[in-house]
Design brief:
mainly beta; five-stranded mixed β-sheet
């Protein structure tokens, strides 16, 4: 993956643009801002879900139908 294929976001977005998914790293987020206690979040192309992402059950962004984490 290259830098132009993902976009870090400063906070949980109100909606996720079509064709993308919201992802966080393996650190479970404790806040809704990027970088808090080592957590990072970004928008990734939906095509990257297969292979290195999985649906995350942590409940961090309940207003979104789902979000993903790095396996």
């Amino acid at each position: 993956m290259t830098a132009h294929q993902l976009r870090y976001v400063p906070r949980v977005p109100m909606h996720v643009p079509a064709g993308t998914v919201l992802v966080h790293n393996s650190v479970y987020p404790v806040a809704r801002l990027n970088g808090t206690r080592g957590s990072r979040m970004w928008l990734s192309p939906k095509s990257y879900v297969r292979g290195w992402l999985e649906v995350c059950p942590c409940g961090w962004a309940p207003e979104l139908k789902r979000h993903y984490r790095v396996k």
